[in-house]
Amino acid sequence: MCQPTPSSKNQPRKEPRPVINRDDSLCYPSVPSDCNLTRLTPLHPTHVPYRQAASYILSTLQQYDVPPPTIGIICGSGLSSLSKALDANSTVTIPYQDVPGFPNVTVAGHAGEMVVGQLHGKSTICFRGRFHSYEGHDMNTVVLPVRTMRCLGVQLVIVTNAAGGLKDSYRVGDVAVIRDHIALPLLCGKNPLVGMNDEELGPRFPPTSNLYDRKLQEIVMEAARNVKMEQYMHGDGTYAFVSGPNYESKSECNMLKMLGADAVGMSTVPEILAAHHAGMAVLCLSLITNKVVFFDDPNGKVEHANHEEVLAAVAGRGAQLVQLVGEVVRRVGTEFLCERQKLSPICLDVEGRVMVSEDEEASSSVGKKDAGFTLCPFQIAKRISRCDRNYLALGLLIATAGALVGIRKRA
User: Fold this and answer.
1) Is 358 a catalytic residue?
2) Any idea where the Nucleoside phosphorylase domain is (predicted)?
3) Which of 108, 176, 217, 365 has its CA 20 to 30 A from that of 78?
C-alpha cells in the first residue's frame, strides 16, 4: 500500500493546477482551457476549500500514477472496512489531516482517512470517516468530502450509514436501500445548500423527487442475491435525519414512525443532497444496528440505544457488506456508468478569481437602485473599472481632503 508522508520526497510536484477532462484523464495544461470562462465568475470563500482539497488529492494521486476516481464511497460508523474491497496492491491512503481544509474526525468507528484504488476496474475513492454536524461542524464542512469528490470527477456516490430501525420488519443486521428521506433539520434551515450557490456544481433550486436513483436500487438488490444477502435486504427504506448527538426520545421515535420513516440516523442526508445538487448519482445503504425504543418496558427494564451496540452490529455484518459493495461496483461499471452522461469538469483554479465577501453577498441579494435599475456589487465594480483613472484619482484626492478637514475640525 502506498502511504503519502510529509517527507520532501513525496511532496507534490510543482506543476499547474490539474483539471479533469471528460475522458477521466488528468490534464496539466499551461493555461487550463476549461477554466478560461469560469475564472470570470465570482467565487465565494465557501467555494474554495473543496477545490483546494481536490487539487491536493490529484497531485498526490499523480505521484503514484493512480487515476482520478469515478466512484466514491462514504463509510458510516464502523464501516471503514468497506475500503478492503479495493485492490490492496494499487491503493493510496491519504489522512484527512494532510488535506487542506479537512478537519480531524472525533467519533469512534471513523478512521479519518481516504483510500483511492481500483475496484473491479474502476478507480474508486473511499472516505473512511465522515463529519457530523453534532461535532460542531457547519454544513459546508459536513459535505466537504462530497463536493471534493465532484471536483475529482466522481460520477457515482455510494453512501452508507448505521441507523436505528423504526419499521417493525427491520431487524438488527438488516440493510435498507433508501428511497426517500425526512430531514427535519434541513426543513428548519440547517441545509448545505444555504448560502451563495456554486453555479459550477448545480442549480440554485434543485428538485429532490428524483434524488435516489431507481436503477441503482435495482442493481443493489440484484447484487444482494449474488452475495447471498437477499434475506437481509429491504428495498423500500425511508431515512429520517436528526441532528443528534443524543438518541431520540420515545415520543420522537413514535412521531418519526407516524411520519413514514423506517430508519433514523444523524448523518447522510446533507451529503446525499449535496451530491444530487452537484449532479452525481446517489445510492444509499443503511445498516440497521439497533431497534429504537418506542415504549417503556412493562417489567421495568430500562432499554436505550448506545454507540457500543451500533459498532458491535456493524462488526457482525461488515464482511458481507464489503462483498455487497464490491458486487454493486462491478455491476455499475458495466451497466450504469457506461450509459450515464459524464459530468462537466470543475475548474479547480482559485487564483485570480473574483472573491465575494459576505457583505457583497448580502448586498447582491438586495441590490442597489441606480436610475431605475438594480445593480449588484459586481456591476458597480465593473462600472467603476470603466471610469477614467484621472477622475478616480481626483475623487480619492477630494475624499482624502475632506477627511483631513473633518479631523482638523474635531481637533
Assistant:
1) no
2) 70-323
3) 217
Q: Is 290 annotated as catalytic?
A: yes
**8 Å CB contact between 216 and 281:** yes
CA distance 381 to 369: 14
Catalytic pick from 110, 181, 234, 276? 110
CA–CA gap between residue 124 and residue 91 (Å, rounded): 9
Q: Which CATH superfamily hosts domain 8-335?
A: Nucleoside phosphorylase domain (3.40.50.1580)
Each residue's pLDDT tens digit in the chain (411 positions)? 455 544 333 444 333 334 433 344 444 323 344 565 555 567 889 999 999 999 999 999 999 999 999 999 998 876 777 788 888 888 999 999 999 999 988 776 667 899 999 998 899 999 998 999 999 999 999 999 999 999 999 999 999 998 999 999 999 999 999 999 999 999 999 999 999 999 999 999 999 999 999 999 999 999 999 999 999 999 999 999 999 899 999 999 999 999 999 999 999 999 999 999 999 999 999 999 888 888 776 665 656 666 676 667 667 787 888 899 999 999 987 678 878 888 999 989 887 676 776 555 555 444 434 434 344 444 444 444 445 555 556 566 666 666 665 655 555
| 77 belongs to the catalytic site | yes
Q: Is 315 a catalytic residue?
A: no
Annotation marks residue 234 as catalytic: no
Catalytic site residue from 267, 274, 305, 327: 267
Q: Please give the model's pTM, rounded to 2 decimal places.
A: 0.77
Environment class of 255 (CB within 10 Å of its CB; exposed 0-12, middle 13-18, buried 19+): middle
For the chain, the domains span 8-335, 358-410
Rounded Cα distance between 146 and 157, Å, is 8
Can you read off the three cell numbers belonging to residue 320? 458481507
Annotated catalytic residue, options 218, 226, 307, 361: 307
Report the 10 Å Cβ neighbour count for 315: 13
* 135 included as an active-site residue: yes
